[in-house]
Design brief:
The complex is a heterodimer. By secondary structure, chain A is mostly beta strands. Chain A contains six helices and 52 strands. In chain A, the strands form twelve sheets. Chain A has a 22-stranded antiparallel β-barrel. In chain A, strands 10-17-18-13-14 form a five-stranded mixed beta sheet. Chain B is mainly beta. The chains are: A mainly beta, B mainly beta.
């Protein structure tokens, strides 16, 4: 099987045509005229060839064409396109800066033919969102949140009201690879999942892959969320920020050396605990409850062919309850990248990545004083190359290795504590990978993107492994203990083929298909659909096989009205192997026999997703609809019968709209609807001591009531500084741009069940009843944002 | 372990936001009246009780149906002791009957419809209580409360599990499983336990304080098996902490009774301590 894939791959590569005609390369970097930010995904279209290329995440592009005269159109959504007539008789550099088109009312002309990227590219099952657009969507407490925004896209489900956990095409939350400037973020949420760690002021854009994940990415089964931080204004110093109900933000950015080097520092902190301090209740006022984020990035253009980027993120949540209990957790990531142009056709990027998530909690004083810590650290080095062979072929290849350190749990007794020190053994592993892929045009209609990724996972270091007797599904006993000496004692090797094809039906519509195999070697022990900060990650091992997924997807893409409307219909089927579930009442924390709590099975998901999107004009927005089914089958759970995943939603609808009434007033609204969550309900009850205890039958066989909600927002922009008259004394006014944002979350006060529990009546213990727990009946909020 | 409780603090914060209301939720009644056993045996010479009931449909809203006319026998490996039905569903030993540390006890039940059920439990030793300290402090919910702390040795070797039962002025404060502290020795193994808070009772729940200044506190520490620990934990998870943000999917409570019956038969050794607390206003 693998051999055949390889042969096909080599066969395809050899298809690369060799022209006899003299050829030259035009390359360059595309940037925003106002602040010098790279324009990721901007398109370069060659009129004469009716084809072109796309700028990579550094804004770099390269096109190799036969000698001749060409008309190039460079365009980017939300920017004025520009057209260049060039004579290509030698290698050329063309690095224009594009000007952002005014967002407000204008008679927009559709000049660029290449604005139908969504139809023409092989990519499907992906969505790119610009931060500027995300900021217009109504948000809970006015906190703009990228993770909640992507939940509004078809194929992506939310874990529950107001939470940032997301589930892609039937995959669990730990099957999403979330990258912030290429560094994995292990816990993307603050405050128990209600806010994401991504400060909107520091983020440039994001792209989510639900399928068709390119060969250069791997390590998670279900999705890739690729988030890019801003690079910092390369033209002038700028300060921006905002005040909201929950948090305040401040960002400083500017050139260090004009057009050579720039920086950005962005900070955010919540102040809920400031209100607690005002409380006259001394117990309450001693409590602490806040989180903060710090993003920083610098870049330095050494010369035309070399550029360095250093970016970092640091964020923490802090809880403290008087003197009794304290807890904090957070991520730290760092990325150092070196872009090097070997020549105008070979682009390379060398990256060093560090990522760390840890939590610690404990009781600082007294007989029961202890400190409990848990941590995961990734160190990653990789090299990626893009070879722009010719307009018909773009070849990417690279290799990388990740060193994982797992410190699942350690308890330290403090002072005169009754506790012993307790340490779960640390685990170490390597994850190596290499890939090659080619994007290839065959004639006018067909474009292929095919690749192969190979991954090797190695458990290394001193480790203790257990084997369990699991003949009785309710309990297990430890049967055997093996202590492994240093060195790699367990290896998993997998090929991961990736394939996408696009077939143009006509100028405005195309059919696409994709297949990808993914493997996942690190897993999260989390038994709920919420993103608990206390969950831990653990590696594959002799007992825990890597999770595998095969996904096929097909889609029809069509644009209308000169690309003002984009529509797509996609269907997918995904099968996952060695997926992990947990035995009943599993103990996942501080358990050295964690692997004994795991139960392995299979899962499948299929569905259809429709997206209708309007990207231009006074009114923008989208309508998304998903029909899907996701089930798991684990021999020891639910009597071996397949059961719905908790995040299975049969129907899911999102309507998102933004309307610019005039240059200074924007109205935003969204409505979401989804089938209720699958839950397990009791069929009977029994009494034990003073408790009436439920008896359950089939897992996730019933549904909570349907979820729906309507949110609105109003943004008022201050007058542009250049429209205001100069002060009377003739001095220039401060160049301040500002806006007020008012929003109402859950306008029609729908009580959406977060969970349904069955419990005894407090007054009459013999009565048992169903209770619904819900959050956020209606939340108005206000925020102020400024930039100067 | 008490550490579990700390992880639940985190969810408690969400109470700030969350609302709860009773709703109507239709359920199918598929429950076919299975036998439920609540059997406790200790090493004390006293009347030991086995209570037999049946499951009912979830919205039954009446006390559990009692299982009458069953034959209930305790077997200690050599001899059988018949239990007498003293009230409907209540089967009791003579007052002289006492379990013996080191023996394994088997409870055999034959119901009137001629179904046979059995369960066994080893009676394991318990460590001693040196003293119990009673003091005023703050409860988990930051209310004024009476806090009871345990002082005593813990034998070396992981695998000892304990629970504490508390009676104050004759009132049982550990009637509900949710009020019982039960622990494993995993994190304290072999240590001298100098001050483990095993019970907190908010002053509001001690009405007797209004009448008298003295509380007669009776504490029993029971040895329990790991399966019973798991059973208690499961009950707490399904009745007190269910529906939380981080709770796992609902699941049935394990049982050590055969033939599909629910509940538990446990054998425990008991250490006792009586302390007085004089309440000064």
């Amino acid at each position: 099987m693998y051999k055949r894939v390889l042969i096909t791959l080599i066969g395809c590569l050899s298809l690369i045509n060799m022209y006899s005609q003299e050829k030259y390369t035009i390359s360059g970097t595309l940037k925003d005229k106002a602040d010098g930010e790279a324009l990721i995904g901007a398109t370069i279209y060659v009129e004469e060839l009716k084809s072109g290329t796309v700028a990579n995440i550094y804004g770099f592009y390269s096109l190799t064409l036969p000698e001749g005269s060409y008309t190039l159109t460079i365009s980017y959504l939300g920017y004025n396109s520009s057209t260049y007539a060039i004579t290509l008789d030698k290698d050329l550099k063309l690095s224009p800066e594009l000007e952002s088109s005014s967002v407000a009312i204008e008679t927009f002309e559709i000049s660029a033919e290449r604005e139908q990227e969504n139809v023409e590219d092989t990519e499907m099952s992906t969505v790119t969102l610009q931060m500027a657009n995300i900021k217009k969507i109504p948000a809970l407490f006015g906190e703009v949140d990228v993770l909640k925004t992507i939940q509004l896209l078809p194929g992506i489900q939310s874990g529950g009201e107001g939470t940032t956990g997301f589930f892609v095409r039937g995959g669990s939350a730990d099957q999403n690879l979330i990258l912030l400037d290429e560094a994995p973020v292990y816990n993307p949420s603050h405050f128990l999942g209600f806010f994401s760690v991504f400060n909107p002021d520091a983020i440039k854009d994001l792209k989510i892959y639900k399928g068709g994940i390119p060969a250069r990415y791997g390590g998670r089964l279900s999705s890739l969320l690729d988030i890019h931080m801003k690079e910092g204004n390369a033209k002038k110093m700028s300060v921006s920020g905002g005040l909201g109900l929950i948090s305040s933000r401040l960002t400083v950015e500017g050139p260090i050396k004009k057009d050579k080097s720039s920086f950005i520092i962005s900070a955010r902190r919540t102040y809920a605990d400031m209100f607690l301090k005002l409380s006259s209740d001394t117990n309450l006022s001693q409590n602490q409850l806040y989180f903060y984020d710090l993003n920083a990035k610098v870049n330095y253009q050494i010369n035309e062919n070399n550029k360095l980027y250093l970016s970092g993120y640091f964020g923490r949540d802090v809880f403290k309850f008087s003197r009794e209990f304290a807890m904090n957790w957070g991520n730290a990531t760092g990325t150092l990248r070196w872009n090097h142009l070997f020549n105008n056709k070979l682009f390379s990027n060398f990256t060093l990545i560090y990522s760390d998530f840890d939590y610690n909690l404990g009781v600082p004083e007294g007989a029961q004083a202890f400190e409990w810590t848990s941590r995961i650290i990734d160190k990653n080095a990789k090299a990626d190359f893009t070879f722009y062979a010719n307009p018909k072929n773009t070849i990417r290849f690279g290799a990388g290795t990740i060193h994982h350190t797992f410190r699942p749990g350690e308890i330290k007794a403090l002072g005169q504590s009754i506790f012993n020190d307790f340490t779960l053994p640390n685990k170490f592993a390597f994850e190596h990978s290499g890939y090659i892929s080619n994007e290839q045009n065959i004639g006018k209609r067909i474009k292929l993107h095919y690749g192969l990724r190979a991954s090797l996972f190695q458990n290394v270091g001193i480790d203790t492994s257990y084997t369990f007797d699991t003949t009785n599904p309710d309990v297990y006993s430890v049967e055997d203990t093996i202590t492994n000496q240093s060195g790699s004692f367990n290896n998993y090797f997998n090929f991961e083929p990736r394939f996408s094809v696009r077939f143009m039906l006509n100028e405005k519509s195309s059919l696409k298909a994709t297949y990808n195999r993914m493997t996942q070697y690190v897993h999260q022990a989390n038994n709920s659909t919420s993103s608990s900060p206390l969950s831990i990650w653990f590696p594959s091992s002799t007992l825990v096989k890597p999770q595998l997924a095969d996904q096929v997807a097909m889609g029809y893409f069509r644009n209308f009205k000169q690309n003002i409307f984009e529509t797509s219909l996609e269907v997918y089927y995904k099968k996952m192997y060695n997926t992990i579930d947990f035995r009943d009442h599993a103990e996942l924390l501080l358990n050295k026999y964690l692997e004994g709590e795991l139960r392995y099975g299979e899962a499948y998901s299929y569905g259809a997703e429709i997206l209708l999107k309007k990207q231009k004009g006074q009114f923008t927005g989208w309508i998304g609809y998903t029909y899907s089914e996701t089930k798991r089958e684990v021999p020891e759970i639910n009597g071996g019968e397949a059961y719905f995943a908790p995040y299975d939603r049969t129907h899911d609808i999102s309507v998102v709209g933004s309307y610019d009434i005039n240059e200074r007033v924007n109205l935003g609204a969204n409505w979401v609807f989804s089938t209720g969550q699958a839950i397990t309900v009791p069929t009977g009850r029994f009494e034990y001591k003073g408790n009436v205890v439920p008896v359950f039958s089939d897992r996730n066989a019933e549904r909570m009531p349907a979820f729906h909600r309507f949110d609105v927002s109003l943004t008022l922009y201050g007058k542009k500084w250049d429209e205001k008259p100069a002060k009377k004394n003739g001095k220039q006014r401060w160049k301040v741009e500002s806006n007020w944002n008012f929003s109402i979350y859950n306008l029609y006060k729908r009580q959406n069940a977060f969970s349904i529990v069955f419990r005894q009546n407090e007054d009459t213990p013999t009565i048992t009843e169903a209770h619904m727990i819900y959050f956020f009946e209606i939340i108005p909020s206000i925020s102020y944002n400024f930039k100067f | 372990m008490k550490i579990l409780k700390y992880t639940l603090v985190v969810t408690a914060i969400l109470v700030l936001f969350s609302c709860e209301k009773q709703i109507d939720f239709d359920l199918n009644n598929q429950e076919n009246a299975r036998l439920v056993v609540e059997g406790d045996l200790t090493d004390e010479a006293k009347v030991h009780t086995v209570e037999l009931t049946r499951t009912s449909s979830y919205y039954e809203n009446q006390e559990a149906p009692r299982e009458t006319g069953a034959t209930v026998v305790l077997y200690d490996g050599t001899t059988n002791q018949n239990l007498t039905e003293t009230a409907p569903g209540i089967y009791q030993t003579p007052i002289t009957y006492a379990g013996v540390i080191g023996k394994t006890y088997t409870l055999n039940i034959t119901t009137s419809d001629n179904e046979f059920y059995t369960a066994s439990s080893a009676l394991e030793s318990v460590s001693t209580i040196d003293t119990v300290l009673a003091d005023l402090g703050l409860s988990f919910e930051d209310e004024d409360a009476l806090i009871l702390s345990h002082y005593g040795p813990e034998p070396a070797g992981v695998g000892n599990n304990y629970m504490w039962l508390v009676t104050i002025n004759g009132v049982d404060y550990t009637e509900d499983v949710g009020d019982i502290m039960f622990v494993t020795d995993e994190f304290v193994d072999g240590n001298y336990i100098a001050g483990f808070e095993f019970q907190e009772i908010e002053l509001a729940d001690l009405p007797i304080l209004k009448e008298t200044d003295t509380l007669n506190i009776s504490v029993e520490m029971h040895s329990i098996s790991k399966p019973y620990y798991d059973f208690l934990l499961a009950i707490v998870l399904e009745t007190e902490f269910n529906g939380g943000l981080f709770s796992g999917p609902p699941a049935n409570i394990p049982s050590n009774i055969s033939n599909g019956a629910l509940g538990f038969f446990r054998a425990s050794a008991v250490s006792k301590m009586e302390v007085e607390y004089v309440f000064s206003k």
